[in-house]
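Hi R.,

Here's the chain you asked about this morning:
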Amino acid sequence: MTDLLTLPGRPAATLPTGLACAGCGYVAPADALPLRCPNAVAGDDIDHVLRRTLDATRIAWPASGEQNPFVRYRTLFHGYQRAVAAGRDDADIVAQIESLDRAVATVDGHGFTVTPLTVADLGEAGPQVLVKDETRNVSGSHKARHLFGTLLELRLAGADDPSRPLAIASCGNAALAAAVVARAAQRELLVFVPTDADPKVLERLAQLGARLTMCERRDDERGDPTVLRMREALATGAIPFTCQGNENGLAIEGGLTLGYELADQWRARGTGVDHLFVQVGGGALASSVIQALEEAKALGALDALPRIHAVQTTNTHPLNILPDGAEPDHSRIPLYEVYMRMAEELAKRSTCARLQVGTVVTDARLENVVAIGYNGNAKGLPNRCDSAVPGNCGCIHSEVNALVKAPGAMRDKVVFVSSSPCIMCAKLMINSGVTHVFFRRVYRDPSGVELLASAGVSPVQYDRWEHEWR
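And here is the predicted structure, written out as tokens:
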């Protein structure tokens, strides 16, 4: 299924909002509501991610002060603009939003509200640090914003078909948020989870009425089995109810409310913000906040944008997490650092004139090195680059040289590479059953790291112990 939903009633005028693919440029027609780009083809090397567009010359920044962000910022939503153009009254739309929010409150104890922005007590003089606390929102994270926004778009468009179940591949906050919103909307939810999912999370999902499917890896497949099973469900008619932008282009719009709140809260304080740090996993949160702040500036709500930093936790590999949450003993050099230095030593054998890179591949428990590699020319050819043009030197990348020698049937491989992978090497890692990628330096193009995170592979910039034990 393409998930290109045909909508009843075509707006008479061109809307100030729309949906377009950031990868190929596809623009959705006014009588359609695509959840995924219909031009997406497996292997075309294009990141097909739909995003909501906005003409800042035709929309004003909302001046109302409602505490529900979906009511406060409703005029910026594509679904609202389309509904109004089709003849619906603003009060009727507000009533629909509030009705769905009350249903969420019945399930989760409270509905959506503007979350606080507070000054962090660092106990010392220095730059003022502000913290946006999303743990007090529906289901305890920002994920519910994305999915409430998705369901709201479907309902405003009259495209919420109850005969089609909602589907998500997740065993954490996204699944919990999806279950809360789906239960509130009285919608069937399919949740595809890994075999090692947290039993407490599974119990809560079952309590919320979600239909759980445990996904074991099949011998003949590559990639995350939960995502593969979800895509099979989508192919038979399920609606993507996930925070992954390539699967659900409507997910970003709900998350925009968080960035809009930040813009209003900064303006109310009367001071600008120099730097914004956003925790990233698959990228939905960062994408939403960045787009929202850009739109706030275009609409005159902000004078300038802060410098944005995407951050991740240092190391979530299972061997680095103890049952009580304490860090492992670092009185001796960690194995992660040992393998990272091994990759750096391998890089010294590279004959690439531009960038020397080394790679080490291990098993899941870091007990066996299963392959090594460094970038250079093919076996038997001259040990030099074919060209001096950046990006076209002709060298085989170190990750490729390592993974072609790694056992194909081995699951949950771990990769250590001296520089983060390019996007093509990231795709190879995804298809090779890699779960974690540790890198020392960031490659000039960060899209490889972003792709890994979006596909469920954990990228870790590992430089904590770079100068120790020397």
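One quick note: The longest helix spans residues 90-108.

Cheers,
M.
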